[in-house]
Design brief:
Layout lengths: L2 H4 L3 H17 L3 H25 L6 E4 L10 E4 L1 H24 L8 H17 L3 H20 L4 H32 L4 H9 L6 H19 L7 H8 L2 H7 L2 H16 L12 H21 L3 H20 L4 H31 L16 H16 L5 H13 L5 H28 L6 H4 L9 H15 L1 H16 L1 H8 L6
Antiparallel strand pairs: 1-2
Helix pairs in contact: 2-3, 2-5, 3-4, 3-5, 4-5, 4-11, 4-15, 4-20, 5-6, 6-7, 7-9, 7-10, 8-22, 9-12, 10-11, 10-14, 11-15, 12-14, 13-14, 13-18, 14-15, 14-18, 15-16, 15-17, 15-20, 15-21, 16-18, 16-20
Length: 507
């Protein structure tokens, strides 16, 4: 195998190596541990960009770990969608890690950097794996790391939300195992490409059980994506976590969305008998209701962090409203909106952190408080982050929503999608306008200066960079939509994926 072929394993290998080394040196050589962690994020970003460049030839690459050929061995599969997700995860990780180091968040516990790297290991593995069992394993790796990150910095509210988060995800993991057991019992394989072929050949007597397994599996992915009514864990968890940690968590719901996009057309597509497009009837209504509930939470939120948490929920609903039509052009629009919504949600959490660090006891509450020296700069970042997450011009959220509306025009579901997208945009504008006016236009006159805090402006670097990337998505909308369209074409043609993963006669 050439070095280029081995590059596929780099996004998994880099954090797997960096995490234990950072843990070993952190107590005695803290600066070395921090440098290792930052280097790991940058190295992952470089590897992800190189893999994205490889994916431009439209080939689907397969890496058989240990030389065991599928469907018997563990395989990593690099398709266009996986490359997009790897670049997005590495970019977000680099921004969040920079912010955590600059603000000193990583100093509030010895294990921040190892847990951060293990979280990236789980994310990258989930994007690359070619079988359901290892998807479960990588889900567990990222979840276990997220438990520690969620509790980082301690606090009663964080502990209560953490217990809720752990219990919900343990239930989800149990259901995932049950769904896998059913599918393995029916098909005798967990390799997704092989399962696709065997599902299509199942006898009529197994169709009912197959449909139940399909619905259960997609319900687990819906729980990970926080789709209504399986969303209740997200707002409290994200609002209670440290803002920089919540910014990294902005991509975790997208892992659930990624799993739905990867598994449903491949395994439960048109040839799956009774399980064909099994989640289709309920996925769109659930997505639209998720968007409504999310933006209602933005309107009612009492802190910027609560609003950001509900905004992540709302953006997932908007994203899945396009995915749920299972049309190639709508899927392409969703894949443009996916990186935008992730970066916009992360930017809003980072801005919330900047606000809270400057308002002392008032934190990021949506209420009048003390003024601070660089209020105009922070207000500009808040306004741009809000514009991004709501979907107003000139940032990429407007382009993404416009693409979703355009791609669903003329469909039977169009009135519902259009009404929800346009209505929730208005609700989001009202919610963020209320918060922005309370924080930046109104100040307490009495003792305002004594309660304000000016921590410097280094903590504005990461949110400004995230918003800058939203601008880059807008300016590069043409090339980015081409990438999204090419990825959607691969997803809607599962035969190409199966032919790349399975050698002839392997099944």
């Amino acid at each position: 195998m050439s070095a280029a072929s081995h590059l596929i394993i780099a996004p998994v290998l880099i954090p797997a190596v960096v995490a234990p080394f950072a843990l070993l040196v952190m107590r005695r050589r803290r600066r070395v541990g921090v440098a290792l962690s930052l280097f790991g994020c940058v190295a992952m970003l470089a590897a992800a960009i190189a893999l994205m460049a490889q994916a431009q030839d439209d080939a689907i690459r397969v890496y058989a770990i240990g030389g065991w050929q599928p469907p018997f061995g563990i395989v990593l599969v690099l398709a266009r969608l996986a490359a997009i997700m790897l670049v997005l995860a590495a970019t977000l990780a680099t921004l969040v890690m920079t912010h955590a180091v600059v603000t000193g968040l990583d100093r509030k516990g010895w294990h921040f950097h190892p847990m951060f790297q293990f979280q990236l290991l789980g994310l990258n593995g989930a994007f690359l794996t070619g079988d359901l069992f290892n998807l479960f394993v990588f889900f567990e790796v990222l979840l276990i790391a997220s438990y520690g990150l969620m509790l980082h910095g301690q606090g009663t509210a964080r502990l209560k939300a953490g217990v809720h988060y752990v219990v919900i995800n343990i239930v989800g993991s149990t259901l995932f195992l049950i769904a896998m057991g059913l599918l393995y019992g029916l098909t005798g394989t967990l390799n997704m490409a092989d399962m696709s072929l065997r599902v299509a050949a199942l006898p009529a007597g197994d169709q009912g059980l197959l449909r139940a397994a399909a619905l259960l599996l997609v319900a687990v992915f819906a729980l990970k994506a926080a789709i209504l009514p399986l969303h209740l864990w997200l707002p409290r968890t994200y609002a209670a976590a440290a803002p920089a940690v919540a910014a990294l968590f902005a991509i975790m719901t997208k892992v659930g969305v990624y799993a739905i996009i990867r598994v449903v057309p491949l395994v439960f597509g048109a040839d799956a008998g009774a399980a064909a497009w099994a989640p289709a009837p309920w996925l769109l209504p659930a997505a639209l209701l998720t968007a409504l509930v999310g933006f209602a939470g933005v309107l009612a939120g009492r802190t910027v962090r609560e609003q950001a948490a509900y905004a992540v929920l709302a953006s997932t609903g908007t994203l899945l409203s396009a995915v749920a039509t299972w049309r190639e052009d709508a899927l392409a629009a969703a894949l443009y909106y996916l990186p935008h919504s992730t970066l916009a949600g992360a930017a809003l959490f980072l801005v919330a952190d900047a606000i809270g660090r400057r308002r002392a006891g008032y934190a990021d509450s949506a209420a009048p408080g003390p003024g601070f020296a660089d209020r105009q700069a922070v207000a500009a970042l808040f306004m741009l982050a809000a514009i991004g997450i709501v979907g107003l011009p000139p940032l990429s959220g407007f382009v993404g929503k416009l693409l979703i509306l355009q791609s669903t025009f003329g469909a039977d579901e169009a009135p519902w999608i259009w009404g929800t997208v346009l209505g929730t945009t208005l609700i989001g504008i009202l919610g963020f306008a209320r918060t922005g006016s309370a924080i930046f236009w109104k100040t307490e006159a009495a003792n305002a200066a004594s309660r304000s805090c000016t921590p410097g402006q280094a903590d504005l670097i990461a949110p400004a960079a995230a918003i800058g990337l939203l601008g880059a998505l807008t300016l590069g909308a043409g090339p980015v939509t081409e990438q999204a369209a090419a990825a959607a074409a691969q997803i809607i043609a599962p035969d190409r994926y199966i032919g790349a993963v399975l050698p002839r006669g392997a099944s």
